[in-house]
Structure formats: C-alpha cells, structure tokens
Design goal:
Layout (H helix, E strand, L loop, with lengths): L20 E8 L7 E7 L5 E3 L15 H8 L5 H8 L3 H20 L13 E11 L1 E13 L5 E8 L6 H9 L6 H15 L5 E5 L2 H11 L4 E5 L21 H13 L14 H19 L10
Parallel strand pairs: 4-7, 7-8
Antiparallel strand pairs: 1-2, 2-3, 4-5, 5-6
Length: about 300
C-alpha cells in the first residue's frame, strides 16, 4: 500500500470495507513529501489506523530517504557510501535495507505463474556463483534461476558452503568445519521454479554432480535437464561472462554479471564485503525485484511500494 493512497478503506484487522470504516481525522508527519496522513476508524473491531498502515515507510523517522537508499544501493554504492551521499548514519541505511529486503521478498513470493512470461515459460537456466562473508575462508553460494525468454529472475537464494582448494585446511583450522547447504538452497529455488513455471519443459545448468539429483527430486522425470560444461571466464563481465564462442548459459551468466556489478559487496575485487549472510539475502531479494522491473521495460524511476 502506498503512503499516498488516501482512499484506503479496508480495515487491516478484520478486512471490513467502506461500510464499517470511516474517516478519523489526520495526523501530520514532520518529514517526507506527504504533509498530512488520513486516519480511519473501523466501527466493527474498533481499530484506528491510517493510510500509511502497512506501507513501506510505516513508522519510519526518515521516510524521505527510503527510495533514495533503494536507488543508491542498486547502483553499486556501498552502505557507508550511501550514508555519506545522503547525509545520514550507516545504521539508518542498514535498517532501511532490511525493511526493503523484507518487502522485496514479499513481492517476489506474491507472484503467480502469469507474472513469468504470462505463464508460458518453457526454459529456465540455473547455476551458482560464489562470494564470501567476512573472509574468503567462509564462502557463500548464491543459487540463481532465470527465465530464458524474458531474463526475469525467478528465484535466488544464498547458502553457506565449505571452503575449497588451498583454503580448505586454513578454514577448518580457523573457523572449524563449515556446513554445506547448497543442495537445500537449490531445492528451494527449483520448487519456486516449479510453482511459477507450470509449462516448464527444459532446464539448463552446468555439470555439477549434485544438480542432477536435486532436479530429479523436485521434478521427477517431467522436464529435460541439459547440462553444459563450464568454460573459462572472459576479462569483462566480472568473470561471469565466458570467453569466445556460443554460450548456452549466456542469459544466466549475464544476469550473474549484473548482480556482481550492481551489488557492491559482490564485486570480485573490492574492500566492501558481506559481514552477515542475512544482509546479503536482503540485497539479493531487492536486486531480483529491481532487475525484473528493469527487464520488464519500466521507463519511470523504479520505486518500491
């Protein structure tokens, strides 16, 4: 619900409409672009509420900064950089990211099959990319599923994974054994794909051994799973785009490159890193929502309600 919607006449408690809800005066808000907020009263359950109840900026002290924070963090600005740019404290930006992430996740989960290629999507590409929290000894896997025809992000999930290669022993000595939740994250992503793409016929991925097992557990034998060998990344595209020739996973790799470019903490060479995986999940949800609006051809500045 938008803060500007003064015609909101449904009680959030008992869901009664115009018959039971009456106007109940106004209240003034010191900041923001709406000087007066309409209040309402429900004669059925005796609840007083306002046009702002349930809105993105509900009970915020600085509601005028919320959309500015959204646009800044989606244009590769770090949280501290965003705070310097807007003249507020970093904790203000962090709290707004949490609120925006919860709302973005709500919007993503509220989608129906009609929202993905009008319910006719038949090819989905999925894969993982890696980042880390606090240290390279504590890697994180980001599982991503993209609709091939529209490039919409269907689902994204972040999960912990153990360190690999030369960092494996160092990670165990410093932080102890690290669990591997990649299969569980992939299963959640594919279940969302199954819900939003009822006419799915094909899946594409690389040749990681566990993909085949998880795909079979979710879809059985109803879809064709095509696996393609990974190739060396090229210099541009944050290392996600592949060097030379035809790339059968190009739609997904291009989306992964956009994630790394737009979310500051995902850039491969940066001082800005994830400290807690929960905040990374919020940013992934925000960008998935943002990305879907961009590829959908939105001409006006994107604003979350």
């Amino acid at each position: 619900m938008s803060d500007l919607d003064s015609s909101f006449r449904v009680c959030p408690e008992c869901s009664n409409g115009n018959e039971a809800v009456i106007k109940y005066g106004f209240f003034k808000r010191g900041t923001g672009h709406v000087p007066r907020i309409q209040r309402y009263f429900c004669k059925s359950c005796k609840l007083a509420f306002s046009a702002q109840t349930g809105g993105l900026t509900y009970r915020e002290r600085k509601p005028h900064l919320t959309q500015a924070v959204l646009r800044a963090v989606m244009e590769s600005v770090s949280q501290r950089g965003c705070a310097r740019l807007l003249g507020c404290r970093p904790i203000t930006v962090a709290r707004k990211i949490v609120r925006l992430g919860v709302r973005a996740d709500f919007h993503l989960k509220a989608r129906t099959a009609k929202d993905i290629a009008n319910g006719a999507e038949k090819l989905v590409i999925f894969d993982d990319m890696e980042t880390f929290e606090h240290s390279k000894c504590k890697p994180i896997s980001i599982t991503l599923a993209v609709a091939a025809s529209t490039r919409q992000i269907i689902s994204v999930a972040a999960s912990v994974m153990p360190a690999k290669g030369l960092l494996s022993d160092i990670s165990k000595n410093r932080y102890g054994p690290r669990k591997d939740h990649r299969s569980q994250a992939l299963k959640r992503v594919l279940e969302e794909v199954k819900r939003l793409c009822p006419h799915l016929a094909r899946l594409k991925s690389d040749m990681w051994a566990k993909y085949k097992t998880v795909v079979k557990s979710v879809f059985g034998g109803t879809v064709v799973h095509e696996r393609h060998k990974s190739r060396r990344g090229c210099v541009v595209g944050q290392g996600e785009l592949k060097k030379g020739g035809y790339d059968p996973l190009f739609v997904l790799n291009h989306s992964c490159a956009m994630f790394r470019d737009r979310i500051k903490r995902l850039s491969r060479r940066t001082w800005c890193t994830t400290k807690k995986i929960g905040y990374l999940r919020h940013l992934l949800a925000i960008y998935a929502w943002w990305h879907n609006h961009l590829v959908g051809g939105t001409k006006r500045p994107v604003q979350m309600d």
